[in-house]
């Protein structure tokens, strides 16, 4: 089962390693990880997406809470949070496919941020389902390069 | 809505420490550091110098802190653990960078497992050399990450006072644990005016560390009282948390007021007097049969692990698990542990709740606080059930399966009898006899440390502990070599107490160099080596599960099996430590008396058979239905 965990931490060196170590030490892979400062420059927010059984996740969340540098841990359930991801995708195009790629980009409200003779670089933002759908469609044209920020999430309330 | 997991932590209010902090004159980093230790009340540090820590040693030469030079960093760090376990105050050890630091790692892991407050200081290479593969450089913060409660790499001389104060606070509060401070040499050599923060300032600067303030909520405590009132067969299962939080008196009061029998973990031994009528002694793999039956019920001994479990008598219907962590050596197979009882689990560490065994009522909070409030509730509304049937059942179990030993055919026919006791077989000394005699001769007042293995289990079984902190043993990590250095730390902390390391020959040899520390520093810690020339616990498993095939468990000299090897008398004498070998039962009492009377370090090398098994025995991952308990 997939879990999205939001962790508010002190903005200090080594904190990322301590957090990541709790996952790796239990043989858990982190699917995506995003870290950035919050409105308070002394604090950072990490969003971790991982999957595994509930008992192990409960244990990881409790262990996260024990770290002195961690201020707050939230484990989100389906539907109670908003999440976004930003993706840059470099897609193969030629004179015949360029128009179609641009059209799909438009439908998804994505943006073309760079144009080269044989490729388009597209920026897309959205929930994971939207992003996945878009990337699926782009596969038929050929995705040359892909970079993703990983999910960022925030509770609705 | 988001599900708030664990305990919601308050966001920090940034403070201006200048208001009340005290500013000192300009000093070297090394002196600031040592003064910071003095301000934490450090009396003794176990430290082995090297290039990256010698600056601090220079500062220590003019400090009131006693510096004890161990002969190996592992010995020093185990001694610091012994000191911490005996006093409840943080033990302090130090090593230089690189190998000095990595030699501290076992004790750090040990302290992490046994929740022991330990401050491990490591020198580090100059900051501009970090990451360049400098001589004796190791990323010790990285190495120790999964085995510390917290750690600090000091990057600014101005941070020293705050970091040291934070480190001691974190190590000693809540669920205690090890904290590493890694201090680069150039910071030790730099100069600055220290700003000494107050405790309140330090606490405010740790917004994410709320563990020390956790208290059980009233509703949960009321529910516990309700469960006790309904229970017919309650048992208290208490661990190291009782000792750490200083709740032994509260536990005794609570057990007596509710008339509930008490079993402890090995870490909890002494948290409840083992001489008390309500004491079931300790439970688990090698714990007392009566404690295991009381918790789990009595079953017919299964021939095979696949046979069904046939219950003879019911065990606890209510298990009050206070300050414990449901270690696998206690529970055996997790799901079968106290299968038919309601489990209440109170612990200060939320991550222990529902970790190994799901609790019906998990409660986060300090156990001393919880017991104090429970006692107040019981005082207001006394519990009238005396449960005579349950107590009678327990008395019957205690009578049926006490700790016991005998000379089994395996012992009688062993090489030990032929090689070492030819013609004097009736003079054989069993390990249990030695500890039983020591208990009697010290009136149960000695402080005992142990190595790891069979002797450790017997030290738990055959000595009865009356006080918290009286048994100091590496329980969670099971670090061989712990016993003698730990005894040195205990003796330094409690110079007026009789401190005896009950050890095995394998464990003792692992830190034998600390005999030098004992002699030079005049630390009169005693040691009894229960010398069976083997790794006894592994031998026991070989006998049980590998048809007695010996896989490198013989520690003697295979070409001269009749001789005891190594010769501990000669080894000890070369360290100027008194030692005598005891082979025959008739010599044991007098030898023990000489050891106890000595006002200097003293070692008894007691030669024992290797075919003695620790009984009771529940094989790993098995159940009480698989318990071998008849000697």
3D structure, described in words:
The complex is a heterodimer of chains A (157) and B (631). Chain A has 157 residues and is an alpha+beta fold. Chain A has 2 domains: 2-76, Alpha-Beta Plaits; 82-155, Alpha-Beta Plaits (2-Layer Sandwich). Helix content of chain A is 29%, strand content 43%. Chain A is built from 4 helices and 9 strands, in the order E-H-E-E-H-E-E-H-E-E-H-E-E. Chain A has helices at residues 15-24, 54-66, 98-107, 128-139; strands at 2-10, 30-37, 43-51, 70-76, 81-92, 111-115, 119-126, 143-148, 152-155. In chain A, strands 5, 6, 7, 8 and 9 form a 5-stranded antiparallel sheet that branches. In chain A, strand 2 and strand 3 (43-51) form a beta hairpin. The model of chain A has no long low-confidence stretch (mean pLDDT 93). Chain B is of the alpha/beta class and 631 residues long. Chain B folds into 3 domains: 20-213, Rossmann fold (3-Layer(aba) Sandwich); 218-399, TPP-binding domain (Rossmann fold); 409-614, Thiamin diphosphate (ThDP)-binding fold, Pyr/PP domains (Rossmann fold, 3-Layer(aba) Sandwich), CATH 3.40.50. Chain B is built from 26 helices and 25 strands. In chain B, the strands form 6 sheets. In chain B, strands 5-4-6-7-9-8 form a 6-stranded parallel sheet. Chain B has a 6-stranded parallel sheet with strand order 14-13-12-17-18-19, sandwiched between helices. A 6-stranded parallel sheet of chain B has the order 21-20-22-23-25-24, with helices on both faces. In chain B, strand 20, helix 20 and strand 21 (471-472) form a beta-alpha-beta unit. The longest helix of chain B has 15 residues, at 73-87. Chain B is globular, with a radius of gyration of 25 Å. The N and C termini of chain B lie far apart (59 Å). The chains are: A alpha+beta (157), B alpha/beta (631). At the A-B interface, strand 1, helix 1, helix 2 and strand 4 of A face strand 1 of B. Strand 4 (70-76) of chain A pairs antiparallel with strand 1 (3-4) of chain B, so a sheet runs across the interface.
């Amino acid at each position: 089962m997939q879990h999205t965990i939001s962790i508010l931490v002190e903005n200090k060196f080594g904190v990322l390693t301590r957090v990541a170590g709790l996952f790796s030490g239990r043989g858990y892979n982190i699917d995506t990880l995003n870290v950035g400062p919050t409105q308070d420059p002394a604090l950072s927010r990490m969003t971790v997406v991982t999957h595994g059984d509930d008992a192990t996740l409960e244990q990881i969340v409790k262990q996260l809470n024990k770290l002195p540098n961690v201020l707050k841990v939230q484990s989100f359930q389906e539907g109670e949070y908003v999440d976004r991801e930003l993706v840059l995708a470099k897609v193969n195009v030629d004179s015949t496919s360029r128009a179609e790629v641009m059209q799909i980009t438009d439908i998804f409200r994505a943006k073309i941020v760079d144009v080269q003779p044989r490729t388009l670089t597209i920026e897309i933002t959205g929930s994971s389902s939207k992003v996945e759908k878009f990337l699926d469609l782009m596969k038929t044209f050929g995705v040359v390069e892909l970079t993703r920020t990983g999910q960022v999430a925030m509770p609705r309330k | 809505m988001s599900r708030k997991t664990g305990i919601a932590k308050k966001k920090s209010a940034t403070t201006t420490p200048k208001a009340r902090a005290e500013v000192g004159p300009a000093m070297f980093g090394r002196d600031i550091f040592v003064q910071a230790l003095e301000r934490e009340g450090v009396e003794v540090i176990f430290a082995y110098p090297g290039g990256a820590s010698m600056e601090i040693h220079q500062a220590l030469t003019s400090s009131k802190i006693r510096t004890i030079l161990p002969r190996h960093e592992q010995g020093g760090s185990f001694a610091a653990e012994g000191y911490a376990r005996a006093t409840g105050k943080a033990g302090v050890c130090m090593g230089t960078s690189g190998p000095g630091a990595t030699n501290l790692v076992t004790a750090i892991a040990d302290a992490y497992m046994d929740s022991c407050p330990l401050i491990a200081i490591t020198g580090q290479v100059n900051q501009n050399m970090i990451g360049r593969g400098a001589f004796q450089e190791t990323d010790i913060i990285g190495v120790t990450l999964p085995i510390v409660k917290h750690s600090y790499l000091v990057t600014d001389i101005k941070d020293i006072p705050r970091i040291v104060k934070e480190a001691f606070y974190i190590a000693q509060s809540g669920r205690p644990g090890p904290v590493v401070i890694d201090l680069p040499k150039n910071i030790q050599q730099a100069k600055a005016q220290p700003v000494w923060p107050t405790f309140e300032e330090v606490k405010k600067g740790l917004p994410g560390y709320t563990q020390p303030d956790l208290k059980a909520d009233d509703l949960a405590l009321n529910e516990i009282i309700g469960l006790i009132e309904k229970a017919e067969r309650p048992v208290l299962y208490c661990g190291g948390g009782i000792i750490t939080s200083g709740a032994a008196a509260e536990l005794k009061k609570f057990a007596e007021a509710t008339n509930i029998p008490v079993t402890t973990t090995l870490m909890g031994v002494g948290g409840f007097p083992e001489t008390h009528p309500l004491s079931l002694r300790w439970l688990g793999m090698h714990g007392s049969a009566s404690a295991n039956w009381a918790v789990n019920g009595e079953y017919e001994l299964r021939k095979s692990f696949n046979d069904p479990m046939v219950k003879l008598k019911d065990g606890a219907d209510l298990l009050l698990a206070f300050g414990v962590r449901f270690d696998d050596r206690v529970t055996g197979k997790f799901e079968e542990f106290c299968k038919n009882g309601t489990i209440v689990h109170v612990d200060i560490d939320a991550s222990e709740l529902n970790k190994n065994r799901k609790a019906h009522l998990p409660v986060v909070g300090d156990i001393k606080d919880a017991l104090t409030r429970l006692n107040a509730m019981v005082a207001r509304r006394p519990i009238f059930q005396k449960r005579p049937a349950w107590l009678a059942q327990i008395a019957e179990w205690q009578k049926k399966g006490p700790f016991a030993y005998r000379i089994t055919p395996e012992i009688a026919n062993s090489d030990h009898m032929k090689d070492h006791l030819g013609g004097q077989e009736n003079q054989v000394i069993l390990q249990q006899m030695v500890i039983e005699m020591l208990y009697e001769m010290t009136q149960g007042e000695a402080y005992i440390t142990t190595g790891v293995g069979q002797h450790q289990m017997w030290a738990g079984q055959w000595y009865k502990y009356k006080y918290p902190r009286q048994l100091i043993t590496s329980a969670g990590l099971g670090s061989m070599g712990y016993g003698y250095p730990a005894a040195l730390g205990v003796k330094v902390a409690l110079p007026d107490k009789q401190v005896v390391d009950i050890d095995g020959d394998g464990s003792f040899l692992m830190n034998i160099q600390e005999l030098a520390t004992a002699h030079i520093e005049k630390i009169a810690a005693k040691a009894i080596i229960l010398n069976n020339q083997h790794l006894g616990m592994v031998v026991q498993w070989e006998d049980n599960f590998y048809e007695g095939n010996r896989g490198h468990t013989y520690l003697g000299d295979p070409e001269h099996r009749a001789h005891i090897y190594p010769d501990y008398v000669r080894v000890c004498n070369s360290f100027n430590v008194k030692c005598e070998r005891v082979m025959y039962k008739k010599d044991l009492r007098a030898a023990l008396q000489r050891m106890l009377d000595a006002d200097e370090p003293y070692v008894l090398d007691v030669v024992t058979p290797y075919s003695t098994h620790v009984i009771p025995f529940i094989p790993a991952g098995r159940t009480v239905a698989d318990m071998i308990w008849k000697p």
